[in-house]
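User: Continuing from earlier, I have the next pair ready.

Assistant: Great, send them over.

User: Here they are, in order.

Assistant: Folding the first of the pair now:
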Amino acid sequence: MRKIVSLFVLAIFCWAPKLNAQDGYFANWFARVDKTKDEQPHWVTPLATTTPRLEEEYRYDQLWQVNGKGVTTDNYDGGKGLELIPFEKVEAIFNVPPYIAHNNTKVADGWGDAAFLVKYRLLSANEQHGSYILTAFLGWSVPTGQFSNGALHAIITPTIAYGKGFGNFDAQGTFGVALPVADTNLIGRSFLFNNTLQYRVLRKLWPEVEFNSTIFQDGKNDGMKQNFVTPGLVMGRFHFLGRVGFTVGGGYQIATTHFHTSNHNAILSIRFPF
């Protein structure tokens, strides 16, 4: 019994620093988040382009995508979700599977794929020290989709993201490659270019125009290219409750290439940064 008690006491002493460290980790969470945000530009997140900035928020998007036959697909959540800053220079995003309603009796509605994204900020400076940022992403999706509402296999998407500000004007962009883990000849690779130009007006209004491009390699769309021009407006950040804010935005995607999988798509984005 004495040996058991001694081992128990020893275990407590061994675990105590770890428990204290965990307590300190969570107790300092928002101080770490605020420090991380202060070291980067304070732009607003675009509608379709993933920002190179690190954010902590919950985001919900609603998409209305119109196919070539004029049928609108309702995409609930748009594959967005919870964004956290667990460490300095690191953001982790947990995207909720979207629910996709096709408004077509021949196509089954259902949940799409779950997805995750990790950002690592390589370089940054806030508006007082140059207003720029460079960030590496690693995203991956899990084939959780029902019926034909997801990919056949997981897809890994390494991405580089960048941004530069000039007073009230800023440009943010990303370049990534979507790589299926199997059956590339069926799913295909996608080269993804997104660039956004924003201008801040009256402190809280951010009119923007985005250029969202995809080049397809292999798969059913092999050799095709599509581009959307997306004018939009994002408003925020407004104070909501405590340290929680509120941001809302909307935009309209217009295809500018002969080939396009959809056209005249509307986007609504609601965020609660904290």
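And the other member of the pair:
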Amino acid sequence: MVGPKATQQAVIVAAGFGSRLQALRPGGQLIKPLEPVGGVPILRRVIETTLATGITEVVLVTGHMASELEAAVGSWGFGGCVRFVRNERYELGNGVSLLCGARECQGDFVLLMSDHLFQSRNLSGMLAAGRGDNGAILAIDRKIKSCFDLDDATKVVADGDRILEIGKQLGSYNAIDTGMFLISGEVVPLLDGVMVRCGDASISDAMTQFIGQGRMGAYDVGDGRWHDVDTPEMYDEAERLVAAGLFAG
């Protein structure tokens, strides 16, 4: 009997403005994924960690300052391991970037954020756990007290390995969304439907539909660490964590 095909593709969303980090470049032009943490651009750290887990192709979705971002990534020497896809409507929700990337994938794929540092064991563990019969799996963190900016975090209600609710404004929750997903190709028609109805889409729109089907799974990263770099304060914390050796680079 032939087992399931290993997931080989990752979509990394890097199309947004990154306006909340603009204070790092007063009066200048900021390209958030290229901001260095510990001397290495955030996005380079994300791509290197992703490829280290056995992913063979990264579909990088660009938008804001796309030419500059693509030129920088092209100079890093990843070659055919990174393919660029442009989201021409990057002013819309992040679900549009997900849709652009998902259309370029065959079968299951990993979804990652260009501003989320993570340890490789988080991704390799989720890949090993697999998607099962779920439409998607979200890597969650039950170490709520270790979250640097809890107000900004997306909260999750999980029951074992099943996600029941997800959202930033949840009053009661037991885990945090780490920004790492394993997703089936079913997400394309789901988001196409959202776009037809609303003219815009978020990643949460797709995940909410999987939750409604009872097919949104959870993978607990356990002791694995991750960190979102979204504000100057988060950036400073990222510098501290990298200096402490938590994230390879």
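Worth noting for the second one:
The longest helix spans residues 187-198. The mean pLDDT is 93.
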